Amino acid sequence: xxxxxxxxxxxxxxxxxxxxxxxxxxxxxxxxxxxxxxxxxxxxxxxxxxxxxxxxxxxxxxxxxxxxxxxxxxxxxxxxxxxxxxxxxxxxxxxxxxxxxxxxxxxxxxxxxxxxxxxxxxxxxxxxxxxxxxxxxxxxxxxxxxxxxxxxxxxxxxxxxxxxxxxxxxxxxxxxxxxxxxxxxxxxxxxxxxxxxxxxxxxxxxxxxxxxxxxxxxxxxxxxxxxxxxxxxxxxxxxxxxxxxxxxxxxxxxxxxxxxxxxxxxxxxxxxxxxxxxxxxxxxxxxxxxxxxxxxxxxxxxxxxxxxxxxxxxxxxxxxxxxxxxxxxxxxxxxxxxxxxxxxxxxxxxxxxxxxxxxxxxxxxxxxxxxxxxxxxxxxxxxxxxxxxxxxxxxxxxxxxxxxxxxxxxxxxxxxxxxxxxxxxxxxxxxxxxxxxxxxxxxxxxxxxxxxxxxxxxxxxxxxxxxxxxxxxxxxxxxxxxxxxxxxxxxxxxxxxxxxxxxxxxxxxxxxxxxxxx
Length: 518
Description:
This protein is mainly alpha-helical. It is 66% helix and 6% strand.
């Protein structure tokens, strides 16, 4: 059977399995999906707003979401539809490029690594801009490599076009990361010369990228009197990099930890993989390119004061390429050179045994989920697969061990999507209280703080009340009302005229959401 079709089918199954089975709940999803709804209802292709205030992401994801909303309606299926599609496109592009540059076996291994990554699977099942950014950056960088090494200008044009789309997906990072990666690569190749730079058609390429990217930025700047671009570029790019934003700080080597975690369990071989591929870098320049991508991305965010797991994800496909090359090499050499691999297998067996224990404990810790703690036992599939893979590693059957890992994590992801996440999501306070709120059929406002998912689930903007005077004015205007807030903020008030109709802790977060009625 055609392996390209198998790769696409596997990616669709793993990324797409019941991706609509949970509500739009997390902060980023609620804001992104809600922004697309507001833009659609206004018929506005330019200004991203959430709850009638500026939202901090460019337009590409919203335009795709609006297209899906118009076909499927406003729901989680539509909001996440193109995230799944771009995840599949990412895997397919990796397969096709790596097959062209190296060989089909390495392309197959690399594709499976990405398909079975828990972190990437979560990302490609969310209504966020990262799937779009990941696809265009990866496709663009691989197009650059082919254009540079094979002297093909059409691939260079694909690169510049991809950067333009990536800029509309997430902003300046689309220019910063590829530029840094290419400079590192050319310096490592000792080819950072005027002749090389001239051969890259930078001027023409810049025109292509700007032709794609600038119209929307100019449009949103014009209609907002340039307030949105200032809000986006200064507050949500420069300030995020130079200061801790929204509590998302980190430590110096968190980028390395994130990449390692994203490619478990095969990432346990990363130390050997890096040593192995480094020895053959002169024979295979693609190794230097993949290493440059990893160093460039992790190095860029090494100095960032705000760090999220998604920030360093652009290097995950290239780390997967290095691992896939190592796995392929292990199949080709004698047992004496690979006999120590089973030691890594033992290390992962220890990690694998800890995973179901950690899942059970995590569910028990959250008071809203303690009754679901046995769902953590679905993770038992991981140690089972780990011990089978260890058996194959000790016999030097590297391909069978790798396939065992891939099957194990594919099954785990499908089980989680089918039986764990939907039941966990059913306990979130927004899902549990939104019908109660709608049942009152009263004007709604929120006091100081709100779980953003309420705005998406209720399908309308919710007025913010910043102090008790504004609360009293809202009551005077409407009489009977519903107020959504968080327990900490609501407790500041002494309002015997209100009854708390609902209260529950936000899942995996500290705030307690509540609904009060007078």
